[in-house]
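Quick one, tokens below:
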């Protein structure tokens, strides 16, 4: 590890932090420390970091905005890599939107609307980064990333920088090939269409108003915890099972939206995991449906 640290610090990859609490980097405000947290300066620096991990046999985890991730209370051993300022950009080329991995997915939808481009209105309430949205095939309001995705630049676990087209991503509901093979999105291109700015703004305002009325935006959460089962909604099942407001430690099923678990102040990862397990068993007992979490659980247990 000493040889790795020395080479890492000499490589000029970006900011390097040691024993850094990951609760500062997740929307749940939960998570123990990373042994090493790297904030790479750009694409090439990120690829170089991955090559160093491979060379030294170092385990690593990629972290976007931390909006769909539960980090354990003991934290993550090895390296956590978080795409940073060098990948926080967007540019428009006709009907194409090209965005770096750390660019806000919500902000991307807003900027596309200002350009008079339609197709990203669904993203106005998805609290993650472009990289995370592609990784998860994020979606809402009847649409998802796969509908507008054109291509992405990806750093493979070998450290090679490649381009994946839409078919390469093997998108399905809340899934992409990157959940099966390790890789980091560094840039994505979305194919949009010309639209009416007023209509786009009205659709986004409607989504925003609905979100404000139905989601617990005032408390730390990770968005929807469970995938919707076929032809049903996880929130409906959880609510019908009488679980709204149920708590485990500092974690609570939101009174406002049953598929959200909120951190009421001092929730631990174990509190959240206990509540997830209780929800799953209760819903299965009541309806015979085993809910599948869409939250990624990482770290030492």
């Amino acid at each position: 590890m000493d040889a790795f640290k020395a080479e890492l610090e000499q490589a000029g990859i970006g900011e390097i932090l040691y024993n850094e609490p990951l609760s500062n980097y997740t929307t749940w405000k939960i998570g123990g420390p990373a042994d090493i947290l790297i904030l790479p300066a750009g694409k090439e620096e990120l690829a170089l970091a991955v090559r160093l991990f491979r060379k030294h046999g170092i385990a690593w985890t990629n972290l976007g905005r931390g909006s769909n991730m539960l980090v354990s209370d003991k934290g993550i051993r090895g390296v956590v890599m978080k795409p940073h300022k060098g990948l926080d950009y967007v540019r428009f080329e006709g009907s194409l939107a090209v965005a770096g991995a750390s660019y806000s997915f919500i902000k991307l939808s807003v900027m596309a609307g200002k350009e008079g481009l339609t197709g990203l209105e669904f993203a106005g309430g998805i609290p993650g980064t472009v990289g995370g949205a592609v990784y998860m095939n994020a979606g809402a309001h009847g649409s998802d990333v796969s509908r507008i995705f054109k291509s992405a630049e990806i750093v493979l676990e070998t450290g090679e920088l490649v381009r994946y087209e839409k078919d390469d991503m093997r998108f399905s509901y809340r899934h992409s090939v990157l959940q099966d093979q390790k890789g980091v999105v560094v840039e994505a291109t979305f194919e949009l269409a010309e639209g009416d700015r007023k209509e786009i703004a009205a659709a986004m305002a409607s989504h925003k108003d609905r979100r404000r009325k139905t989601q617990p935006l005032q408390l730390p959460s990770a968005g929807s915890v469970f995938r919707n089962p076929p032809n049903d909604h996880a929130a409906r099942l959880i609510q019908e099972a009488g679980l709204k407001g149920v708590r485990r430690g500092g974690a609570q099923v939101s009174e406002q939206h049953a598929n959200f678990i909120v951190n009421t102040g001092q929730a631990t990862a174990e509190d959240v995991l206990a509540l997830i397990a209780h929800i799953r068993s209760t819903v299965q007992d009541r309806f015979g449906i085993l809910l599948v979490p869409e939250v990624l659980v990482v770290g030492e247990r």
